[in-house]
Structure formats: C-alpha cells, structure tokens
Amino acid sequence: MTDIGLSSQLTAPLSPDARIPLIGFGTWQLSGDEARQAVSWALEAGYRHLDTATGYGNEDQVGAALRDSGVPRDEVFVTTKLPPDHVGRERQTLQESLDKLGVDHLDLWLIHWPPNGTAGVESWKVFVEAQKEGLVRHIGVSNYSLDQIDELTSQTGVTPAVNQIKWSPVQFDRDLLEGSRERGVVVEGYSPFRAAKLDDPVLTGLADKYGKNVPQVIVRWHLQRGVVVIPKSAKRERIESNIDVFDFELSADELTAIDNLSEA
User: Fold this and answer.
1) Phi then psi for 149, rounded to 5 degrees?
2) CA-based radius of gyration for the chain
3) Span of the secretion signal (predicted)?
4) Above 80 in pLDDT, residue 224?
C-alpha cells in the first residue's frame, strides 16, 4: 500500500502556480457501483488525480466517491472531457459535468476528440472563456496532433495545457514528446497496458530485477519520462499495485531500452 498523498509528490507543471499529479486514476469502462467503489479504493490508495469524461457516463459515481472519501476537494485533481458531438453545447455540458461531479470547478477540461477531424477552434474559444471565469482551472485536448494544437494556439493565442493520448512503451514517440514540450504541452498517456507487450523480455527482466510486476515498470517509465499516466482497474489489488512504484528507479539505460520497444 502506498502512503496517502505520496503520489502527489511527482507532478508536472501546468502553469507557474499549478501542477498535475503524474499518476491519475482512469475510469473508462467503469460504471455504476463498480465505478464508485473503484474510485473510493483509488483515493484510499493515495491517488490524487481522477480522470473521467462525459462520454464515460460515470461522472456522478466519481463525484460520489470523492465526496464520501473525506479527502479535501482541493487535494484532488479532477479531469473530465467534452465529447466531440457536443460541439455547440459546451457550456451546458460543462455545467452538467460540474453538477454530476458535485464540484464548483474542474482542474482540467479536455476536448475528448477533434470534432469531425478538425481542431475545434470554436469549442476551444468556449473553453478559454470557461477558464477565464474560473469554472475550469486548466484546459486541454485529447487525441490531437501537434498541427491541430498549433491551430488552436494560432487562432486564440491559448495553447492547450495537456494533450491526452494513447501512450505505452510500444507507442513511444520522441518527436511528439519533444514537440509537445517545446509548446509547453504536458503529454498524458491513457491505456498504458492495453497496447503494451506485457511479456516482452525487456519488461519482464526489469520486473524481476526490481521485484515488481510489468505494469509497475510501465508506470515507473511514464513517471521518469515526465508523462502523466492514468492506469485503470476495477480490482482493488491492482489499483493499489499500480501506484506502488516509489521504491525503485529505472536507470537511464533501462529507460532507453523501454523507449526502444516502440521500434521492435
């Protein structure tokens, strides 16, 4: 079991006075009582970053678990996302998310996918206004290319703080990571285990070396690369295991070996 609050010690900067925890708890495909219980376990285990979305249909359960946890609201970083088919209903969707989550602001609001394959400039303008009004502390995107991010910046003068994308050892993209950082965009990875080759000898060898399991090695790799990771599980033991990654550190050569799995 990880000490409560320990996960918050590893963060990435979003602005001069705000940071995002590098480990979050993902809630995709969790619903009903299962979602509420999983989020409760996550908060007990020390997660202080919760990731949901309007499209997941579980914002009310995430909010209930947060309220019942006893963890102060200002200690938990809450993210949700606007579905691309809600273009034109951004403010209504935001208010619905706030109501379901039972909070008066979001820490991060993302455009979930590029609307109709476009950058979604008009939606982004609404996001910018919501941030100015204090309803959202930070705004970002998900599944965007660097060109689409550049279009938002050029049209509004505001660059997304975060781009949440599918990310795992086999999807490591140095150019994308460096390009994002040059723009001041934090990369946040979802589905860290689904695309990974969990039986790869590099990963299993490192797990054996450090007395860990492969998912823990993958989470640690994200952290040391400064990429936000949001593992998801409905099982308490896996929720606790995925955040139990603070008692070992990968070497520079080991990080590079994992990076190179994207070329295998």
Assistant:
1) -65, -45
2) 18
3) none
4) yes
Q: Are 60 and 100 in contact (CB under 8 A)?
A: yes
Question: Would you call 190 a catalytic residue per the annotation?
Answer: no
Report the predicted TM-score, pTM, of the whole model to 2 decimal places: 0.95
Catalytic residue among 47, 56, 144, 190: 56
DSSP 143-169: S--HHHHHHHHHHHS---SEEEEE--G
Find the range with the poorest average confidence among 62-66, 90-94, 136-140, 194-198: 194-198
Lowest-pLDDT range of 13-17, 30-34, 155-159: 13-17
> What tokens were used for 60?
């009310």
Give the Cα separation of 189 and 175 in Å (integer): 15
Asked if 170 contacts 198 with a C-beta cutoff of 8 angstroms, the reply is no
Q: Where are the domains of the chain?
A: 6-196+226-238
Q: Tokens in use for 223?
A: 């952290």
CATH of 6-196+226-238, one of 3.10.20.10, 3.30.160.20, 3.20.20.100, 3.40.50.790: 3.20.20.100
